[in-house]
Write a structure and sequence with these properties.
Strand content: 5-15%
Shape: globular
CATH class: Alpha Beta
CATH architecture: 3-Layer(aba) Sandwich
Structural class: alpha/beta
Number of domains: 1
CATH topology: Rossmann fold
Distance between the termini: 31 Å
Strand order of the largest sheet: 1-2-3-5-4-6-7-8-9
Mean pLDDT: 94
Number of helices: 17
Helix content: 40-55%
Length: 401
């Protein structure tokens, strides 16, 4: 398999991994899905515009497709076309944890290591389209980067530290950093993130010298931070108004996750249809509605959550709400090179003028005309163009270490 040879100087020992859900688990999933009840018609669930969440009609049709037409094995094959690994990371706070990651390793001695950190309710699947583009464009000899796409701690195919240790943003960021150190990238790496991944990348930019630069496709004002005085364009003002409306109508789930993670985790993971309704709502609402995600993609994302028991484990993303309620802010470096790709239909934005005033270290900014919260999945070509341009700008940080 191409791109599967890690750097020779790495202290860690990644083991090749192949994803295969046992047939017994697949059969149990289909039986449980078949028996899962769809609730009665109500005034709210007859609306199909999303203002009250997923409609009964959509959930019924999605269930039928999941049962009769969806092929999980096809998605496994797509995932397994890339080098998959698991590596044990020994973190000082959480102890040993098995971390899963996809990789495109380069044999170019000057390759820039980049770790791509997914968000919620997402997974490494969000970055697969970008990896497909890279594997088509480059060979292992010409690839300018080492591309590392992990399952975040407590997500997907990565493990949990312990039932007795709470996962936090700081701990998750530390584990991702230790992964990069274990892979031999102690001379420096770039952290890229969206949603939850953007929070981890921000933390890594402050806590770890080896994180030389960071790129985000989600950036917002900090709690209590006043908008800069620069006027917004008509389009920017429109998008900011839209995100304000979403903050007033679409954030209830985070409060539930953050304040009652035990109840939410147990209830929503009780059967596949409950999980599909809860996560499907976000996968329907948060992308750019002009180019929505396909049902096949949504079912693949939710299936991975189901087969890996991700949902009840991966609720530490709601810690950011607790941080905001306390009036605290997430750290972010204002010295290291920062890149920001703004996709207009994301649920939270930072307009160009504000970004430049708040972050003097902003060396790359690109405002796109299409794309939403899952931009890396929705618009992989545009996203990859941004990453390549940003990587070229910050490459100097790696040539003088």
């Amino acid at each position: 398999m191409a791109f599967n040879i890690p750097p020779t100087n790495m202290p860690g020992k990644p083991e090749p991994f192949t994803l295969h859900v046992p047939e017994k688990e697949l059969s149990a999933f289909y039986e449980l899905l078949k028996l899962s009840k769809i609730g009665p018609a109500t005034w709210w669930n007859q609306h199909t515009d999303g203002r009250f969440g997923v409609s009964r009609e959509w959930l019924s049709q999605a269930k039928e497709t999941w049962l009769t037409a969806f092929d999980w094995r096809q998605h496994e094959d797509r995932i397994n076309k890339f080098p998959n690994f698991k590596m044990t990371v020994d973190d000082a706070e959480t102890g040993k944890i098995d971390v899963h990651f996809l990789a495109l390793f380069s044999s170019n001695k000057d390759a820039v290591p980049i770790v791509f950190l997914h968000g919620f309710p997402s997974s490494f699947l969000e970055l697969v389209p970008m990896m497909e583009l890279l594997s088509e464009k480059y060979t292992p000899e010409t690839l300018p980067y080492h591309v590392i796409v992990p399952s975040l701690p407590d997500y997907g195919l990565s493990g949990s530290p312990s039932e007795n240790v709470e996962m936090t943003l700081d701990r998750a960021a530390g584990i991702m950093h230790q992964l990069m150190m274990g892979l031999g990238f102690s001379d420096g790496y770039v952290a890229q993130g969206g949603d939850l991944g953007s929070m981890l990348a921000r933390i890594m930019s402050v806590k770890y010298n080896e994180c030389k630069a960071f790129h985000l496709n989600m950036l917002t004002l900090n709690t209590g931070e006043k908008p800069p005085s620069e006027d917004l364009s008509v389009q920017e003002a429109h998008e900011m108004k839209r995100t304000e409306t979403w903050a007033q109508t679409g954030l209830a789930f985070v409060l539930e996750h953050g304040t009652r993670p035990a109840t939410a985790g147990l209830a929503i993971s009780s059967n596949p249809l409950a999980l599909l309704a809860w996560i499907g709502e976000k996968l329907l609402e948060w992308p750019d509605q002009r180019e929505p995600l396909s049902l096949n993609t949504i079912l693949a994302m939710v299936s991975l959550y189901w087969f890996t028991d991700t949902f009840p484990r991966g609720l530490y993303h709601a810690q950011v709400i607790q941080t905001m309620l306390k009036g605290e802010t997430l750290p972010i470096s204002k010295e290291k090179p920062l890149g920001y790709s703004m996709f207009p239909r994301d649920v939270a934005l930072l307009p160009k003028a504000w970004a430049h005033q708040l972050y003097p270290n902003l060396v790359f900014f690109k405002a796109h005309e299409v794309g939403g919260h899952f931009a890396r999945l929705e618009q992989p070509k545009l996203f990859l163009q941004d990453i390549e341009e940003f990587a070229q700008q910050v490459r100097e940080s790696f040539t003088h270490v």
